[in-house]
Design a protein that fits this description.
This protein is α/β, with parallel strands linked by helices. It has helices at 7-13, 19-22, 40-50, 68-80, 92-105, 119-127, 142-145, 168-175, 188-191, 225-238, 244-254, 257-276, 313-319, 349-354, 371-382, and strands at residues 85-89, 110-114, 133-137, 150-156, 180-183, 201-205, 219-223, 281-285, 304-309, 324-325, 335-337, 361-365.
Length: 386
């Protein structure tokens, strides 16, 4: 599998290139926690190499160091994100934590972050739990916020939950030698590839669209092989390892990612346009409706729609019947939640309001249902406000 293959082809075949030679069609699932070896000296030598974060083509030693099924998913994500390597973790937050621990260990304990971010990401950066200090700025102030000890600049684009976009190419240029980490969970590599725009690190909560079916908890960092070695070492030492069953499901989800993202995005566009004309809606946040969005960055508007209601958002959460009222996003079914009360509730209310997260904001992750059925479900619960 090469970068010359189309993205849809890579989604189906990346990480599976050797299956024909193995004589199998379905991806093997290796659930071993340990691997036998009668050559103790050779195994010790390999372990000395592996715990530095390097990879080789030999047999696995221990599942916390590496697993063949998870390796396949990592190779697939790296291919889709146009990166040299990818490293999988037990969750998106474990992946972000590994990045922060890596730069802090290198003496770069200052981070510049652009709000809004996912609520728990914001909390982790604000709290200083991992020994980093964070300066929160808008995108235009990154240059002045960077210090000699700055190890990362962090941004989500589109942002959670306001769906604000940042010009990634310009931001990468502003970062200079400081690595730019882009959380690409909302766009996925199908709609946006930050590494091609200059980002050094691409982070995913693979729990969301990459897995795609609401049954995988995972995080992935796509990056250079040099940075991958460092965060593999953190993963080995801290134990934030992805279970092989999750790696198997993640790889399976990637094969349908292009058609899922494009179908959900088209429905999201239609719903955003209809919501814009509904009398019970006071604001709609959707990248595809923004005429001033960064050019040449993200294909389409994505599968998330955020909107603010005139009445009580709890009435919508309690009133939908087809749409699932639940935290998270990126599943084949449509999910809706109120960020102020769930995903971003951990943030200070004043900060939350300052970055545009209204108490009346609802975030909807559009799935694969027929768009008219989704619209009918929204209309029946919005009718009491209209």
């Amino acid at each position: 599998m090469t970068a010359q293959h189309h993205l849809a082809t890579r989604a189906v075949h990346a990480g599976r290139e050797d299956l024909t030679d193995l004589g199998v069609h379905a991806t093997p699932l290796d659930l071993s926690t340990t691997y036998p070896s009668r050559d103790m000296k050779a195994e010790t030598e390999r372990l000395d190499l592996l715990i530095t974060g390097a990879r080789d083509d030999g047999m696995p030693v221990y599942a916390r160091v590496g697993n063949p099924t998870v390796d396949r998913a990592e190779r697939a994500v790296a291919s889709l994100e146009s990166c040299e390597a990818a490293v999988a973790f037990a969750s998106g937050m474990a992946a972000l934590s590994a990045c922060l621990l890596t730069v802090a260990a290198a003496g770069k304990s200052h981070v510049v972050a652009i709000r809004p971010l996912y609520g728990t990401s914001d909390f982790l950066l604000e709290s200083g739990l991992l020994g980093v200090t964070t300066t929160f700025v808008d995108a235009d102030s990154v240059v002045s916020a960077i210090r000699p000890d700055t190890g990362l600049v962090i941004v989500e684009s589109p942002a959670n939950p306001t769906l604000d976009e940042v010009d990634i190419r310009q931001l990468a240029n502003d970062c200079g030698d400081v690595p730019l980490l882009v959380d690409n969970t909302f766009a996925t590599p199908i709609l946006q590839r930050p590494a091609e725009l200059g980002a050094a690190i691409v982070l995913h909560s693979a729990t969301k669209f990459l897995g795609g079916h609401g049954d995988v908890l995972a995080g992935v960092v796509a990056c250079s092989e040099e940075f991958a070695r460092q965060i593999r070492n953190v993963r080995y030492a801290t134990g934030g390892t992805l279970h092989p069953l999750a790696g198997y499901l993640l790889l399976r989800g990637l094969s349908t990612l292009p058609i899922r993202m494009r179908a959900s995005s088209e429905s999201a566009r239609i719903l955003a346009e209809r919501l814009s004309d509904h009398p019970a809606i006071t604001a709609v946040h959707y990248p595809g409706l923004n005429p001033n969005r960064p050019a040449g960055q993200m294909e389409g508007g994505g599968a998330l729609v955020s909107f603010e209601v005139a009445g009580d958002p709890a009435d919508v959460i309690g009133g939908v019947r087809l749409i699932t009222p639940a935290v998270s996003l990126g599943s084949v079914d449509t999910l809706i939640q109120n960020p102020a009360s769930i995903s971003h509730h951990i943030m200070d209310p004043d900060v939350r309001h300052d970055v545009g997260i209204s108490d009346k904001l609802l975030r909807m992750s559009v799935g694969l249902e027929h768009v008219d059925d989704l619209w009918e479900d929204l209309c029946q619960t919005l009718a009491v406000m209209g």
